[in-house]
Amino acid sequence: MEVDIGKGDVRTIQRGKTWAQFEYLQKGFEDTRGLKLCYYNGTIEILMPGAAHELFKKIIAILIEVFLLDRQIEFEPTGSMTRKREGTAAAEADESYEIQGAKLCVEINFTSGDESKLLCYQELGVDEVWFWEDGVLAVYSLQSDGYQKVSRSQISALAAIDLTIMSECILIGETSRIEAVNKFRQAHPIASD
């Protein structure tokens, strides 16, 4: 078992586990608020997010939702619901959405987790995964040969977002959500008809 701690997050990795063991563990933790579980290829990841983790996931959610709401684009906020492919993969994103038929998952990473989680999301058919790590937002779009890092979202409703500005706004949001949203809106004006 591996344990990693970063900015209040505690991540535990257990390898060589079966789907049945994952489901048993999941059932045991179902009343544990905030705990996140992931299973892929015999590996179980248990994440207990800290305060900074929760703050950044919420800031990113606010900015995504402001962008969509300002443009009157319908979306379904699916939060950290468990996505599963029975016997193979399961993941609970920090935030997730369904936008015009596309699935988006957002991951905050303060510990040694890495983009290997992309293989799990690929198995689950998630169209795009956004990682926040070390003050930078990285976007991965699912292509026919797996995820590719892209400079703009490939989800058409989000393609106009400037990811550099969004990263700046996320950092601003650490101290002022209002200032972050105001800067984000200024950088992403709504086109008039």
SSE map:
Layout: E1 2-6, E2 9-14, H1 19-28, E3 36-40, E4 43-48, H2 51-70, E5 76-77, E6 82-85, E7 89-92, E8 95-99, E9 102-108, H3 117-123, E10 128-133, E11 136-143, E12 146-150, H4 163-172, H5 177-187
Parallel strand pairs: 9-10
Antiparallel strand pairs: 1-2, 2-4, 3-4, 3-7, 5-8, 6-7, 8-9, 10-11, 11-12
Helix pairs in contact: 2-4, 2-5, 4-5
Short recap of the structure:
The chain is an alpha+beta fold and 193 residues long.
Explain what this protein looks like in three dimensions.
The chain has 193 residues and is an alpha+beta fold. The chain has one domain: tt1808, chain A. The protein has helices at residues 19-28, 51-70, 117-123, 163-172, 177-187, and strands at 2-6, 9-14, 36-40, 43-48, 76-77, 82-85, 89-92, 95-99, 102-108, 128-133, 136-143, 146-150. The longest helix is centred in the first third of the chain and has 20 residues, at 51-70.
Care to count the β-strands? Answer: 12
Q: Give me the side-by-side strand order of the main sheet.
A: 1-2-4-3-7-6
The level 1 CATH classification is: Alpha Beta
Strand proportion: 25-35%
**Average of the residue pLDDT scores:** 91
Q: CATH superfamily, please?
A: tt1808, chain A
End-to-end Cα distance, whole Å, is 57 Å
Output the helix-strand order: EEHEEHEEEEEHEEEHH
The total domain count is 1
Are there runs of 5+ residues with pLDDT below 50, and where?
none
Form type: globular
The percent range for helix content is 25-40%
For the sheet with most strands, the description reads: 6 strands, antiparallel
